Request: fold
Amino acid sequence: MLRFRMTLGGLFVAVMVTAVELSALAKPSYVSAPAAFLLAIVVLLCASIGARFGREPRASWWGFALFGWAYFGLAFGPWMQSERDDPAVWKSMPPPTEGLLLRARETLYDSFFPADGKNSPEYTRAMETLLETRGHFMEAGHSLFALLFAMMGAVLGPIVASGPPPPRRTSAARSVPMEVLCDPPPSP
Reply:
């Protein structure tokens, strides 16, 4: 059975990264979203170095790096930039988490106002902020999802790497394990 183990220092780093990513989602801005993006890149680069030069449990590092970079490329690849710059250019299919992020964003902002307060000036300002910070929210959200997918890869990596047990060796004449054929006869 495979067990997931983490040192206290590793847990501290994971909590810190999660806190930075979630704070960038809570208050997206010109500073927090690029900081979350850069932090995701640094974590994925460290995982890539750990996968290549790390000690024993490298399957976790490989899974983390592979899944993280795959999602990162899907969300931030050059094919996604064209739709942000020029809406007339062919739009590629967004990552499947894009709708989830948009819904979470609407729910987050709508939860601050009761149903009867939707006509207030505070609500109008909040909706203007919502429109202004859409790109920053999506950047921070996709950075967080890249790290979440990377964690999924870190858990799945050792499971896939362990694979099925090797088959038992049998003799060519009949299907009898080699251990039975090679045992010495009992002494009288």
About this structure: The first helix runs from residue 8 to 26.
